[in-house]
Specification:
Structural class: mainly alpha
Helix content: over 70%
Number of helices: 9
Oligomer: single chain
Number of strands: 0
Largest sheet: none
Distance between the termini: 29 Å
Length: 172
């Protein structure tokens, strides 16, 4: 019932727009701040996450696989992450603010939220993850008051056009 409300109700689309704009502004300003600060460097964050991993009540490292990822993949390739993080945050924010490819933007926003969370950064991540899942669950309705109103039907039309006669609704 709640899922149907999120995905189909017009009032929900207005509420989702407010949530989307809030999260979009948060993502956009975080990314733009990194892009315009004269050089973003994730190496300090990565080294801190490796040196102080998330530990359970018994003192054991909880996400050892993630620490290994940071140590062996992210840190040696920090130059790639120095580009991906600020541009990713900026584009996620732009997608949410404009309501363009909202579901994809929110999916990648949640991926980034979880990566920060796994690294031990709590901050506002739980709230953003909660709101992000609401937007992701709503699907198209979250971007209905935005560019998705035109972009999603265009992509659906192109998909059906390129599917060929054997894949169209008329023959199914």
């Amino acid at each position: 019932m709640f899922n149907k409300f999120l995905r189909e109700n017009k009032i929900a689309s207005y509420i989702l727009t407010v949530l989307r704009l809030y999260l979009g502004y948060s993502w956009f300003t975080a990314g733009l701040g990194k892009l315009t600060s004269g050089g973003f460097d994730a190496s300090g964050f990565l080294k801190g996450a490796i040196a102080n991993p998330v530990k359970g009540p018994d003192g054991a490292v909880v996400f050892g696989w993630y620490v290994d990822f940071l140590k062996h993949i992210a840190l040696p390739n920090v130059d790639v992450f120095n580009v991906i993080v600020p541009w990713g945050e900026t584009l996620i924010g732009l997608g949410l603010i404009l309501g363009c490819l909202t579901t994809a933007a929110m999916f990648f926003g949640l991926v980034m939220n979880f990566t920060f969370f796994l690294a031990g950064t709590v901050s506002h991540n739980p709230r953003d993850i909660f709101l992000g899942f609401i937007i992701l669950t709503a699907g198209y309705n979250a971007g209905r008051i935005g560019l998705d109103r035109w972009v999603v039907p265009f992509f659906r039309k192109m998909r059906n056009k390129n599917a060929g006669p054997e894949k169209t609704k008329a023959t199914v």
